[in-house]
Amino acid sequence: MKVLGNIWDHPRTSAAGLLIGIVTIAGALSQQGITLGSAGTGTVVSLIGAIAAALLGLLAKDPGDSMGQQSGGSTGGQTKLGVWALIALLMPLPFLGGCSATTVAQNIVGWTPALESAVASVDSAGAVLSPGDGPVYAAATSGFDAAAELLIAQAKAYLANPSAGSLAQMQVQVVVLQQQVNTAMLQAVRIANPASQQHALAAIQAVGTIVTAMLVLVQSVSSKSAVAQMAAASKVKMSAVLPLVDQRRAAELVAAHYGEPVVLAQMQVAQVERMEMSAGF
């Protein structure tokens, strides 16, 4: 009876708990390949998880029924509810399985304009560095243009024909570019002028944030053995460059791309970093 009483006294928290449970279970089922059938271009499981996450987001944004709910205790409860809502919203993106290859391909290609812009910014950044630091920066980023162009071409080819062959090419190339970015981040630390170093790191990091997003998307449609091969080819690990990353800038880039709050993007970026390091990247 106490359980029923708690549900009656705290309906919003109880509803949030139920929705969080649904999202969590949907994510676990999808990761195990359990779909419960198809729904449009996705699966029933992914649809249920997405609806639950959306309802949880609406619940967290509800300002309450009266001004009396803005008291200190209620405000603290609303804040906690919002945090749990964001955590639950984070879980299926981009980790929830069940998305079609076409949807993932569209997401990957959707990042290509940002990648082109980021690489162009890397090229132009060298002009504002102090004269002595230019050669170090140029050497660190020399392969970005060719590697990015190839990855963009492969992403578009995969969108046109999401085949095993085009996916295999992306699996190799996205790791190649990721490794170039990680190596460049470490080399940029050798830039002597502090202002030049920060400018160089910011430009390189923008490319790295986008490449990591594309890497996660490629992983989402890759087999476990393929992901293991990708991780094995990743020699410069993410843990080595994380101390150099401006987390806020990374989140702002992700938030701008997906049109979401920066606080949600910060949680997504942190979760991606943990997931990638756990996978061996």
H and E order: HHEEHHHHHHHHHHHH
Bin the strand percentage.
under 5%
Mean pLDDT: 77
Alpha-beta content class = mainly alpha
> In one word, what is the shape?
globular
* Overall number of structural domains: 2
What does this structure look like?
- The chain is mostly helical and 281 residues long.
- It folds into two domains: 2-90; 101-278.
- Helix content is 74%, strand content 1%.
- The chain has helices at residues 2-9, 11-31, 44-61, 72-90, 101-110, 112-125, 134-140, 144-160, 164-188, 194-220, 224-233, 238-241, 247-258, 262-278, and strands spanning 38-39, 42-43.
- The protein has a two-stranded antiparallel ribbon with strand order 1-2.
- Strand 1 (38-39) and strand 2 (42-43) form a beta hairpin.
- The longest helix is centred in the C-terminal third of the chain and has 27 residues, at 194-220.
- It is globular, with a radius of gyration of 21 Å.
